[in-house]
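Suppose a colleague, Dr. K., hands you the sequence of a protein chain of 233 amino acids and asks what its three-dimensional shape might be. Before reaching for any lab equipment, you can write down a predicted structure in token form. Begin with the sequence itself:
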Amino acid sequence: MSSGPIQLRASGVTKTFSLGKVEVPALGGVDMAVAAGEVVLLMGPSGSGKTTLISILGCILAPTAGSVAVMGRETAALPEAELAKVRLAHIGFIFQGYNLFPTLFAEENVRVSLDLRGVTGRDAVERSRAALAAVGLADKFRVLPRDLSGGQKQRVAIARALVAEPEILLADEPTAALDSETGKSVIGLLRNLAVTHGRSVVIVTHDARIAEFADRVIRIEDGRIAGPSQGTL
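The predicted structure, expressed as tokens, is then:
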């Protein structure tokens, strides 16, 4: 496990959704912390609260109670405009469905992340190409998503998440649509980025085959952490 500084912390995080007059609990008092250079897997059955938790960690959803600190800054009481700034400054997201724009080349899909941050022109092009090269796609700059394999699409999505150099990477089922070998390659890439660049990586997954790449596995059941975290390295 990394001994680096804590970059992401959840304290007593609770989330309840209202469905008409019915209150549905999704999370109940989750405490966790992720250090720089650490890879943490969130595992558990469907409906256990994993995606809700990672959405709260990423400042997309607000907790009903409890707090989340990103790079030492408490976020639970921040207005949406400030939360957007926290996301842009510190967090990169990687999704199961890639979320690539079908009519944009790989380089342009990565550059979208920089456009959101006001980085344009030659600097944006060079940084986007460097990010793609870092994930092994130096020959795919001008290729459309339809002409990429599933593993290559996921690497473009990783490059897009990395190009702004966020300290925290959050991935929701990034290997679900990939075969075993490609999935391990993608997670190995994320682990290397954590170790060599001091990033905190949190991955929601059902894929037990990738547990070997994690520093810890946190099991979520019925919205709560089920027992102590398991170290795997």
